[in-house]
Structure formats: structure tokens, C-alpha cells
């Protein structure tokens, strides 16, 4: 697949007609391009200038390609963006752009998303203390972006309104065009490309190496549209997404690569003790810190009055036990049930009744761990929000390959390898180890069928399940591995366990049913656990202690290492388009049909 073709633009300043005339010309002569990113001030700075944007909003003119902007300030910005913000279709925890009109999207605040295969992190607006709703970013935005940046993978585009001070060339005044916050964020996030505006000039800096990262960063500063000096305001790039690049390609350094401009800058701008990554007061600023002491009881270690945004939004936190904020499992559960993230963390939501998410704690006052899975209205409510319940509006039915009475089989979202599948209970159940006998029999048939299907391709099946004691809907993962790798599987899992500081309980069985009978006997519903069933009959089990930090993606990460595809350890780096998913499912169904226990 060809890399995306992207146009980049500096401060638009409301000159949309001039911008899109130039974009149309470039698109015809050198296109087609996939998208346009506008950095710097998007709205006009002249009160008497005609409002060209309304022609596009009201349909009198068309925007030629998907356009994303971050400089949400200037004349008329509040009026336009207030209407967008109130639009019920634009509400929720959305980071890939609020739609202003056809082909125009507003990147508000801060966020990290994937656009056209590229990982994009952005910080919108200017840092001001005036409390404006639009055109500024807050400390919350900064800390959220830092938390998102801790996620696996390399950021391809870092898009900011202003440049970092160290990116501005010598001889150019630095009175208003740079932002010290951007300097800190870019040093931490380390994007492959950093694009900024608001300096009125075009400047492409030499690539520089990053501290603690193998890739280089290229900075690009863009002039404003229609500037009198005729400086370049439109620039084209066609970068391959880092998720599709080899390690050698990512680590390649051009001959003109310089040292990181932040190596000395950080030591100059901040006291030495504040720049260490291990310092609590610096790392603490990477997580949202709202006082929720009066909302509900917390679990685990950390500051009793503050919750970790990273844990709530993703279910994991890279700081683990070192995090100074609550890993609040109840808050995480509320998030999964569709409760507004702002409401969970802040106790309020500025969108109010216009927000499409829930503004009340579901089943407030009752601990989820005390509820019987599958009971009454609780199960019905969960099913409506669940990704795996076939009755849920959120389920992606095109991934389903086979449906039995108690289980169904589906392609994994963001599969590690081809034919990576999930075996999922039809009923909303938290694990596959507490099933009635007839369900267990059907599960065994599915597993045996998958084994035969993989073996027919010269591969063997590895089954694993992560069971959280507060889990929602169970899924048993099945990954095919080459037969030549089977002999080292047990050693690889044991080595990974040793690195995390625990030891598997291991048993070997003559058949699958004996192994699962043993697992059911060992299972403790009050503890989370992870187990893996290996092709040669061994079952590895680990019961996770209350305060133990265990990675939810452990099984996938180990197999990714075994198969020399560490870049695919995170499923979010492996997502593909719906049409491609459909093709993979159809291919699997054709090959699996002769083994399918439901046929």
C-alpha cells in the first residue's frame, strides 16, 4: 500500500479561498493528496475581513479534500466553534476531529489519533490563563497528551500551533512564535515530524536524533497564507507510517542529522532534579489529577484523592505501582459502560445534557465485584455497551466467522497474524472457566476444530486468556504459530514471566479437557489470572495478586516477540480497514468450513 500523501499549511488567517485555490492547483498538478493539515491561527485576525468560512459551511463552496485545523482562535472563531460544540453528533470522547462542515475537521485541545495510517498527536491553540473555551489549551490538555504519548508506538506527526524555541532559526525574533510547553512535549513525545506555524516564515530544520529513541525528528515551520514576503505556506509530504516500517528504516539517520536540541535546553531551563524521568514530581504531571475524594471508594495504592487518567482510558498504566494516582477499577468499569470520561474524572461535564455519554454512575453505590455476572438488568445494561455481545449495537458483526449455541468465533480486531481469532461466549460472561458443562463441551469442540485448521496449514494453536476479576465479556484468544517454534514456546513464556517477577504454575496433560478441568479447579473468582494452553499439552497458569501490576496484553506481547514482530504487540498498531477485515474473515471461513463444529 502506498504511503499517504499529505499537504501541510501554516496560519490560514481566514484566507480560505486563497488557500483552497492553491490546494486545488497543487492537487491537479502533483496529486491526488489524501488530506490537508493546517497549523497556526486558522481564523482571521482582521475584524473587517469577509467571513469566507461561512460559504463552505453553508454549502456555497466546497473544500477539495479532508482538512484538519488546530489554531481555533481569531475573529469569528467562538461563533462557529460554539455551534460545532453544541452539535449532538460531535459529542463524546472524540480525538480524530469534530466536523465543522464537509471535509473540514477541528482538532480541539489535545489528542492522539490515527489518520490515513499515520499516528498524529496534536496540541491546539495557545496557552493562556484567561479561561477561554476556544483558542487555548489547558494544563489538562498537556497532561492528557503526555499520558497518550506513553502508549506503545511511534508518533508520526506532532502538530502544534507554535514552534519550540529550539526549532526557531538563528536571527529570527522569538517574541511570540515559540512555546516552552511545546518544547517539553516534543522532547517527550519525539514525533518523526513536528509541524508548526505562527512564526510567519518557512523553515525546515535539519533532522535531529532523539534521546532514548532510535528515530530522528524533522521540524517544519510554515508561513501564513498570502504572506507579503511570499514565504512558502504549503508543503507536501508522503511519509510511510511508522507502523509499516522495519526497524532499519525507522532508525535510518541522514548524513545531516544533528544532536537533539533538547539535551542541553532541558538542563538550562529546569533544575536538574526536575528533568529526571524517575522523578515523581515530573512524571506526576503526565497524568490527570482531579480531586475525586467525595465521589467513591478507591482501590489500590496511590494518592487517595486523585485518579490516573491513563488507567481509566486504557486499562493499563506504564508507571504501574510507581504511579502516584489511583488506578481506580470502578472508574474504569464506568468508562467501559459508557459513562462520560469528563464526568468520571472531574465530576462534571461542560457539554451538559448535549453530551451523548452518560452523566451518572451506573448502579451507583454498589460494587461491581459484588454483582453476579449475567444477573438481571445489570447484564442487559452491560450488553448494550459491550463490544462482544451479539445483541449490542457496538459489535462488529462482519468479524464473526462462526456461531454456535454457547460460543461464537470471530477474527481478532487488529490481529497479530493472519487467522488470529477469538472464541467468545454468546452470553455476557466474564471468563471461560466458570461455564456450565454443556458450554465447556462446545468450547472444547471449537478448540479442537481450530487446532485441526491450523495444523492443516503447518501451524499449531496457542490459546490464552486474560481474566480480570472485574472483567466484562470473556474472550479466549487463538494464535497460530509455525510448528518449528513450538519447542521453545514454554521457555519463552517462562522467561517473560521471570522478567515480570513471577513464576507460572505449570502442568502437562494428555488432552485438552483434562487441562481445562485443572484450570477450573485452580480458578479463584476473587483474583485476576492469566493462562496459556500450549500445543504440546502444557498449561501455564498465573493467579495475579491484588496489588500486582500485570499487563493485560501479556500473551500477545510474548508471541509477538517469539514471531519477531514486536511492532505488532499492540493491537492498535495493527488495525486495518473494514473491507480488508471482511476479506480476512471470508478467507478464514472458507478454510475453516470443513472443520467448523457448527456445520
Report on this model:
By secondary structure, the protein is α/β, with parallel strands linked by helices. It has an 8-stranded antiparallel beta sheet, sandwiched between helices. Strand 6 (110-115) and strand 7 form a beta hairpin. Helix 4 (139-149) packs parallel to helix 5. The longest helix has 19 residues, at 437-455. The protein starts with 5 loop residues before the first strand and ends in a 7-residue tail after the last helix. Mean pLDDT is 79; it is low at 88-92, 264-304 and 364-383.
Kindly state the number of beta strands.
Answer: 25
Mean pLDDT: 79
* Class per helix and strand makeup: alpha/beta
Radius of gyration: 26 Å
Overall 3D geometry?
Answer: elongated
The first-to-last residue Cα distance is 36 Å
How are the strands of the biggest sheet laid out side by side? 18-19-20-22-21-24-25-23
Could you give a short account of the major beta sheet?
8 strands, antiparallel
Name the beta content range: 15-25%
Which residues sit in consecutive blocks of at least 5 with pLDDT less than 50?
A: 88-92, 264-304, 364-383
Number of helices: 18
Task: Provide the helix percentage.
Answer: 25-40%
